[in-house]
Amino acid sequence: MTEAHEEGKTGLEAQTDAEHRSMKDRDADGREDAPKPAEPTGGRPLREFTVSRIRHMVAEAPPEPGDLLWNQLCRDRRSAVREIAARLKRRRAHEEAVRRREEGMRSYEAGLWERGLTLVAGADEVGRGPLAGPVVAAAVVLPRELTFNGIDDSKKLVPQRREELHGLIRETAVGVGIGSVSHEVIDEINILRATHRAIREAVENLARALGRGPEHVLVDGEQVPDLRVPQTPIHRGDELCTAIAAASIVAKVTRDRLLEEYDTLYPGYGFANHKGYGTPEHLAALTKLGPCDVHRKSFTPVFRNGDRSQAYLRFSARLLSARSAGEIEEIAGEIAGARDSLERYELAKLRDLYRRCHKRVRAGMKSRS
C-alpha cells in the first residue's frame, strides 16, 4: 500500500488497520489462534448487503475488532453503515469504561484481601427518610470472582434490574445478613440510633450465616458505634464499593417488598408506589386518612396529622412558655412522672422540645448579659 493511500485513510480505518496488525503480531508470536466462528457475510463483500440486512447481522452477532465484518463495516462508504460501525465503537468504549469502573469499585475489598483477610463485608441501610415502616440494613460478603456485572448503588437501578441483581447476589454471595428496626423503635430511640442498630443486627446475622464473624466491614457513610468488628466508613460507599453497593441492593429490595405488603394491609396510602417516602401522594393520604399503624409517629408530617394526648398538649405548651431553666427542669420532672400517660413518640417529641427550650432560654440570658 502506498504512503499516499495510507495518509488518505479516515481515522476509523486507520484504527481498524492498527487493531488488525496487532492481532497479526500476536499470531506471529507462535500462539495458537482460537477457532473463529463463520463470518456472517459468508465471505461476500459487504457492499452486496442492504443496510437493513447489515443491521440484522450486527444485532445477531456483534463483531469484535479484527473480525472481517468489523473491518468491512469501518471501510464501507455508506453513511448508514459507518454509523453502525460508530455505534459499535461507542458501545465497546462504554463497556470498557464500565469494566474499569467495576474493577475500581472492588479495590476496597482487594486492599484488604492483600492484607490476608478473606471475609470482607459491605454494609448499607435503606429507609432513613420514609415516614413509615422500618429501617433495613444488609451486610454482604461477595466472592472474589463475580460471575455477573452491574452491581451499583441501588438508587441508580430501575426496580426490575434491582430484582435481577438481588437474585444473583443471593445466589452467589458467600454470606448475607439482614437487620431491621421497626417504626416503633425508631420513634423511641431516633432514626440515627435505629440505623446503627440495624447495621449491627445485619452484621450479627451475617456472622450466623457464615458460622463466624466477618474480618472487616466496609460501611457506607460514617462509623457505626459498637460494631465489634474492624470497619472502614466510606463516604458515598454505595457508589464506590461493590460490596457496599451489593448490600444496598439487598436492603432496598427487602424493604420494598415489605412496603408492598403494607400496601395491601393499609390501603389508601400508596405504599407500593412511594415505599413510605413523603411524596405528595403520601402526604395527601396522611391528611385525608391520618396515620396508620406502621407510620413513624415522631416524624413531623405524621405527628402533625396524628392524635396527640391531652398530657402531651399540656406539657408542650408549658415548655414553650417557660421563661427560665429552673422552670424547664421542673416541667421535665413532671413529664418523667407522667410517662405512663404519654406515647413513646410523644416522649421523644417532648425530649426534643425540652432541648430546644433550654437553648432558647440560654440564648436569651446571653443576649441580656
Structural features:
369 residues; disordered N terminus; Nucleotidyltransferase, domain 5; single chain; 17 helices; 58% helix; alpha/beta; elongated; five-stranded mixed sheet
Describe this entry's structure for a reader:
The chain is 58% helix and 8% strand. The chain has 369 residues and is of the alpha/beta class. The chain has 3 domains: 3-100, no CATH class; 107-262, Nucleotidyltransferase, domain 5 (2-Layer Sandwich), CATH 3.30.420; 310-368. Mean pLDDT is 86; it is low at 1-16 and 18-32. The protein has helices spanning 3-7, 11-28, 51-60, 68-75, 79-105, 107-114, 159-172, 183-189, 191-210, 237-240, 242-265, 271-274, 280-289, 300-305, 310-321, 325-337, 344-368, and strands at residues 120-126, 135-141, 175-181, 216-220, 231-234.
Uncertain runs: 1-16, 18-32
The biggest sheet, with number of strands, parallel, antiparallel or mixed sense and barrel status, is: 5 strands, mixed
SSE pattern: HHHHHHEEHEHHEEHHHHHHHH
* Mean of pLDDT: 86
Helix fraction bin: 55-70%
Q: How many distinct helices?
A: 17
Rounded to an integer in angstroms, the radius of gyration calculated over CA atoms is 30 Å
CATH superfamily of the largest domain: Ribonuclease H-like superfamily/Ribonuclease H
> Roughly how many Å apart are the termini?
93 Å
DSSP E strands, number: 5
What structural class should be given to the helix and strand makeup?
alpha/beta
| CATH architecture call of the largest domain | 2-Layer Sandwich
- Give me the CATH fold name of the largest domain: Nucleotidyltransferase, domain 5
Number of domains: 3
Instruction: Specify the CATH class of the largest domain.
Output: Alpha Beta
Which term fits the overall shape? elongated
